[in-house]
Amino acid sequence: MTELLSDNEDTVNLNDIIESGLAGAGTTLNKLVVPGRDFVAAGIREGDLVVNTGVIPNCSRVLSVEGDSITVANNMSLFAGATYTILKGSTEPATLYIGTVGAGATLKVRTAGGDDIVLDNLVQGTTIPLQVVRVYNTGTANVSNIVALF
Predict the structure, then answer these.
(1) pLDDT (tens digit, 9 = 90+) per residue, 98-112?
(2) Does this model's pTM top 0.70?
(3) What is the sign, positive or negative, of the torsion defined by CA atoms of 58, 8, 149, 20?
């Protein structure tokens, strides 16, 4: 789940990959273009998540889909040749398993109720008894191998 840390998107329950590939000519900071690809036929729709896998973490929700292009909500630093993955959208919350922690580990999350909190003194190999919809990139440090449990 480390590649899905995000300061602007709820990404905890996003595990279903719709497709992956390379951005093509015409791609801009917030528009993914793959000439000859029909994103509508592939089932991509508003609310799905595009991840720029070359610049982690960097993801954004799909605002619109039109043939070979997808417009996203946030600047993702997309460019022709960038690798991307598109995940099926979901808003279901999860509890988190904390796999590995280092010295001074902190975990910033958004709860299902909309509260943003920072957890300190994390213990490796435990679960966090909260319903979480987002794990922030900013405010999370020295934590890895996070697993969302449903």
Answers:
(1) 999 999 999 999 999
(2) yes
(3) negative
